[in-house]
Amino acid sequence: xxxxxxxxxxxxxxxxxxxxxxxxxxxxxxxxxxxxxxxxxxxxxxxxxxxxxxxxxxxxxxxxxxxxxxxxxxxxxxxxxxxxxxxxxxxxxxxxxxxxxxxxxxxxxxxxxx
Amino acid sequence: xxxxxxxxxxxxxxxxxxxxxxxxxxxxxxxxxxxxxxxxxxxxxxxxxxxxxxxxxxxxxxxxxxxxxxxxxxxxxxxxxxxxxxxxxxxxxxxxxxxxxxxxxxxxx
Lengths: 114, 109
Hints:
The complex is a heterodimer.
Chain A lengths: L3 E4 L2 E4 L5 E7 L5 E7 L6 E6 L6 E2 L6 E3 L9 E3 L8 E8 L9 E2 L3 E5 L1
Parallel strand pairs in A: 2-11
Antiparallel strand pairs in A: 1-3, 3-8, 4-5, 4-9, 5-6, 7-8, 9-10, 9-11
Chain B lengths: L2 E3 L3 E5 L4 E8 L6 E6 L6 E6 L3 E5 L2 E6 L4 E6 L8 E8 L5 E3 L3 E6 L1
Parallel strand pairs in B: 2-11
Antiparallel strand pairs in B: 1-3, 3-8, 4-5, 4-9, 6-7, 7-8, 9-10, 9-11
């Protein structure tokens, strides 16, 4: 593993189903983030974690949950998917959550909810 | 409210210079990032400015004016591979990034 990996690469999901997007980093970064990217809109923060064991809500957290049991993994769960959650999801990490910390992005998961 | 504005699309010619502008309004300010994103790929870091002035890095330069809430990314000697979206993001008082929608740069031969 080098950097950040995400799985799956893409997924088509029926509305109402539960889905977990996986994210793993091997850079020992403290902070991790989940964003969604929709056409015509900027990246929007869903949830973040400044260090293992802690999480926080971003701009658009409703319908999503996260956990940070260890430094490397930061899964995002959709408890009951809805069509408005169709988007490209990016996981990112940075050394810390403070000033000037560059965020490194995973390759993204393209999710379609029907 | 918090807001980042940048042009939706720009077109430039190979070998030329292009300037992509970004204005921001955030609750507190802790620096501004520029990222490049090729179609279908993840964003990658280009630059970070926290003090006023110009930061030069090869063919790319980034400028910040904190008093005006303004930044620009300058790309020189444009190459076809520079065709991508350029994302401006400001760090707010909670150290979270507020992202613009991105500027799609089209390079013509």
